[in-house]
Amino acid sequence: MNGDDSNPRWGALPVLCLRDGGPLTESLVFSVAFVPIAPFLAAILAPFIHRLLGAAAGWVLAIVPAGIFIFLLRFIGPVADHQAFAASLSWIPDYGITYSFFIDGLSLTFALLISGIGTVIMVYSGAYLKGHVHQGRFLSFMLMFMGSMLGIVLADDMMLLFVFWELTTITSFLLIGFDHSREAARRAAIQALVVTGGGGLVLLAGLALLHLWSPEAVPGGTWLISALRNHGDLLRESALYLPILLMVLVGAFTKSAQFPFQFWLPNAMEAPTPVSAFLHSATMVKGGVYLLMRLNPLLGGESAGVWHVLLITFGGITLLWGATLALRQTDLKQMLAQTTVASLGLMVLLVGQGTEAAIAGAVLYLVAHAAYKGGLFLVAGLIDHGTGTREITELGGLLKQMPLTFAAAVLGALSMAGLPLSIGFLAKEEMYLGFVGGDPWAYLIMAAVVIGNALMMAVALAIAVLPFIGERTNTPKSPHEGPVAMTAGPVLIGLTALAGGVLTGWLGEVFLVPTGSTVFNAAMHPHLSLVPDFAALPVYVSILTWALGFLFFFKLGEIRTGLKALLDRVGWTFDRIFDAMMSGLVRGSYAVTQVLQNGRLEIYLYIVFVGFVLAIGTPIVMTQAWPVITAWQQPTFYEAGVMLIALIGLGTVLAAKTRLVAIVSLGIQGFAVALTFMLFGAPDLSFTQFMVEILSVVILALVMTRLYLDQRDRRSGGEMLRDGGLALLGGAAVSVLLLVILQYPLDMRLTELFAATSVPIAHGRNIVNVILVDYRGLDTLGEISVVMTAGIAIFALIRMRGGGPQTGIGAKKPDEKQQAKGADA
């Protein structure tokens, strides 16, 4: 099926591997479903492989992402021919949630980037962390992250996508905090976890809301993104559109470090360099960009004004913020981290612009950024490994000692600067074309993009030139090249990116058209050219960008000094705001704990019973669901006798002067309840109640006799009035609730189910026992566990209080000082 203008809806592309069965279902379903699982299985084996092979484990474990990359290559041809592949296995059928994956141009491009760059990173990690005591664990974490990211980009079911989304958060936390002995690493890991994890929870709410809306588009509703992608017009007319949009944007913005959540990404550079290269440049931080691209047909479109405004605004701010702060940094990784923030903002802005050329520019820049930024991070690692420092002000003259590293840096900087013969150049030409011919606002946005690109070009020149050209500086280590496992990766990535920039026809047909058409949701036609078109405006905008980039590069020192002075004068940062919020959270939780968990049992009981009364009474008062009081029925003499026993027990409890007497008297109430069960035809419940009451009274009486505490009730009149009032409120609430329930017809469905299935399923004729042991067996087990735990705790308290076995019944009574001490306790 051709994606021509006669069928502009790209979402109508045929699914080659149908969920209901198809020619390739059997061979592909398990293969595609296994792709995200394979790295997790390898992660289990990683520590053992490292123990056997040492640093060579990186080469062996790289076989997994390499195999995934080779497997995914088979989909390039069909996907370029406008076909898609679906794979689905049953997961939670009662809720319609499936283990579903979908391969189209967008997911395939991301999966190839993840597995391809992941292969290089695994080899690099084996050499970079050679000799580290926890290298096996590090390789395991990297593989788990790789599987999580593959799951995100391949998942079709929204709940499955969320599961993998949060797995990237957890594995990122583990990797950022890998060097947990350093406080900075621990803080950065917690910060990333809080920001991205919190955004993930908001995203979950948005996806759940989208599922609730889905029956309006798909009969019966669905969790599948592919089933909803062509119903954007319908969703944008719904009242749920705005809350769904905002929740999705919060999830995407936190993951992709968009303003005002951009601060966590530079701090994540506390992680080892391979983590920075893989997670926070090439893959993880693009998770939010992927989500926006995936949902663009559903949430975007020409009529989605809010979508365009929010993405362009926040993307533009993030672009300029990150690109500007990158010039202030002197640490190579921090410079690259800030430009990553800027690049993510640029991609979000282009998706928000939404034109065909802007989407094409976003797709090309996605590939270019993954290549050059991953390579440059590895270059930063090589420089650190070879010289002992990453401070650009302490580096210079390394060309002779590190020529391969210099070559890799130049290849990366070529694409980052958007110079000809690179994918970065093609991306800039497309993105500038996306603003041509628009309204004045489009040209204003293009001006921001030009400034942002020029600032990033200055950083690229600084990284490629300053450490290698000029006078040789003294470094902590004698400069030297890294091993083959470290140098081969960035050079290979740079050459691959260069080949993509030269083979424009292949790049357009294989990647740009299928990926861009999926995002744009309409057929896209490539017009990439190796030779700049001097008859069009974009090439002159590119020339302006290069001129500004060289200007910023030559003024780098002055700009850095000015930015530092400005930021020092401002005095606050998003980091400080985050720290203040976390400090406030800790202080607030401490204050709440002092009230709710202050160690006083009476306060705990007050809170429980007040909450109990409010939980029952609030719905009744708000809905005015008051019970209708029926006529009082005259009780029989034996019913009246049971009631009299209960009243006598109540009066005895209230009149008791000591706690021991009150406990014994409370047993009378239990006996009255047991008699009530017996009178109304429940002898088994009555027997159980009798046993419970006897054991409770005996055990509590024994406990009270072993604790030499003041048993007298010394409450004041006000305290007794308070306690009595709360008790009356609780009793009244329960009584009103029971009266309300009794007004409705008795639903016998559960009773009939238990009666019908007790013998054939549970093989028991005592229905009550069957309910306790079989139907609510886990609940009963939990209750038994609670009782057992409480008993152990009571026994431990008795032992601690009495000081050993000398405090049993009949032991010598302690003196007055000991009694006073016990009363205080």
Description:
Strand 2 and strand 3 form a beta hairpin. Helix 8 runs antiparallel to helix 9, helix 32 crosses helix 33 and helix 33 crosses helix 34. The N terminus and C terminus are likely disordered. Helix content is 71%, strand content 2%. With 825 residues, the protein is mainly α. The radius of gyration is 35 Å and the shape is elongated. The chain is built from 35 helices and three strands. A three-stranded mixed beta sheet has the order 1-2-3.
Distance between the termini: 82 Å
Find the count of extended strands (DSSP E, 2+ residues).
3
How confident is the prediction overall: mean pLDDT?
A: 85
Q: pLDDT under 50 segments (min length 5)?
A: 1-26, 804-814, 816-825
Describe the global form: elongated
- Strand arrangement within the widest β-sheet reads 1-2-3
Question: How are the secondary structure elements laid out?
Answer:
Blueprint (H helix, E strand, L loop, with lengths): L14 E3 L7 H10 L2 H17 L3 H5 L1 H11 L2 H5 L3 E9 L4 E7 L1 H24 L6 H20 L3 H19 L6 H31 L11 H4 L3 H5 L4 H15 L8 H4 L5 H10 L4 H13 L5 H24 L3 H22 L2 H32 L15 H14 L6 H11 L6 H26 L18 H19 L1 H17 L16 H18 L1 H15 L3 H23 L4 H23 L13 H19 L3 H21 L3 H24 L10 H26 L6 H14 L4 H9 L1 H26 L13 H9 L1
Parallel strand pairs: 1-2
Antiparallel strand pairs: 2-3
Helix pairs in contact: 2-7, 4-6, 6-7, 6-14, 6-18, 6-22, 6-23, 7-8, 8-9, 9-12, 12-15, 14-18, 15-17, 16-17, 16-21, 16-25, 17-18, 17-21, 18-19, 18-20, 18-22, 18-23, 19-21, 19-22, 20-22, 20-24, 21-24, 27-31, 28-29, 29-30, 32-33, 33-34
